[in-house]
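Q: I'm writing a short methods note and want an example of a predicted protein-small molecule complex. Could you take the sequence and the SMILES for flavin-adenine dinucleotide and return the bound structure as tokens? Please keep the output block clean; save any remarks for afterwards.
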Amino acid sequence: MLSDRGHDNLWARTALEDDPFVPLASDVDADVAIIGAGFTGLSTALHLAERGLKPVVIEAHGIGHGGSGRNVGLVNAGMWVKPNDLIEAQGEEWGQRLISALGDGPKLVFDLVDRFNIACEAERKGTLHLAVGDKGLTDLRDREAQWQALGAPVKLLDADTATRLTGANGFRGALHDARAGTIQPLGYARGLARAAAAAGARIFTHSPATSVGKAGDGWQIETPGGAVRAIWLVLATNAYTDPAQPGLLAAPQQELTILPFFQFATRPLPAELAERILPERHGCWDTRLIMTSFRRDHGNRLIFGSVGSLETWSLVAQQSFARRSLKRLFPFVGHIEFEARWHGQIGMNKSHLPRFHVFADKAIGVCGFNGRGIAPGTVFGKQMAAFICGENEMALPTTPVEQASLPTLRTLSYRLGSAAAHMVSGFGR
Ligand SMILES: Cc1cc2nc3c(=O)[nH]c(=O)nc-3n(C[C@H](O)[C@H](O)[C@H](O)COP(=O)(O)OP(=O)(O)OC[C@H]3O[C@@H](n4cnc5c(N)ncnc54)[C@H](O)[C@@H]3O)c2cc1C
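A: Understood, no commentary inside the block.
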């Protein structure tokens, strides 16, 4: 687990939604025990409670402590894997189901934002995938053709339009996806928690599950303050699963390799300067292998991210890379000072697609969002709620848990490799 020492997560500073939840302090009974209060666990809880069931969520830290409170906030409609490759990997029927569920994912997120009035800086103007060089442009042309064949509202914009919409020169084009948008992710997670609690879910924070065992026909989950007894168990711990945990608790981690991703946020820019950057507040990322992202929040901070961790030994290299990159993108910005910096863990798997597991009888989970978990976590939370109610709407087949190959070595190589690459490169285009 990456340490958060020295971190300052912008989203925790600017979230307008509260986290009023307290630790579990006695034994409780539930229909469904959900471990993990990120998008997946909270969406499961909300949709179960709306169906009249009694879910209990237990979270080791605060709401959105994992990827859900640390991410870039790009509400994407699909995975990294291109549609044709996804269909090849999943087969025609499952592939089409998954594409359709993920394509509708941003709509589900924004509908929830509207329905529960979630304060999360929601922007629905789409996202821009930015082409770096000929290779990037070819990749985006291919993506555009594949998505358009499926009727998706994506369009490849030329270099001039990319410049107008980003304020940055040098990108060869941009793939605009009108289904997508951006959010303040921690605000969204906390808003989901508020909605779930209002619908009847009980949520306990700072309550780590320390063991899980069968109890009669159901499950018993121990925490330091009490136990949860439930018929069903949902493991929603994903990349924040501690692999040292006993038994089932460690299961979601087994097939994941951890990819670290960091972000730096500038101080708020003066309005006249900020308006030259991302005038429509699109969220952006580029086509490079070591991907970078940038966006502007409602406080007019520029937020820049890339692969890597912010540890004592890598912080200086990553910060200098972020500053150089922003200066190249937006030379008119002048001196850049960061007011927040943080990193998070992304759970990657071999297929680069989420996977649905039945870990044991009445113990389920969807793992491996591969850096695309806002809409998919929300979608699969809803689908797992339906599954528990006996309606199989899952857009994923049940798959056994696989063992990731050399996960520790790969994670270490991401951490070291990104710092080395960033030490020598700027934002080359
Ligand atoms: C830096 C970063 C940038 C990203 N950018 C994007 C993006 O722009 N768009 C996008 O769609 N996705 C993005 N992602 C991915 C996305 O954030 C995740 O896929 C998503 O948040 C996963 O949600 P989750 O609910 O499944 O898991 P998480 O949000 O990770 O939640 C798991 C929770 O389980 C808790 N937990 C773990 N063990 C226990 C235990 N024993 N007992 C109790 N609780 C426990 C953790 O504390 C944690 O809160 C990004 C991820 C990162 C890290």
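A: Remarks, as requested: The chain has a mean pLDDT of 94. The chain has one domain: 10-424.
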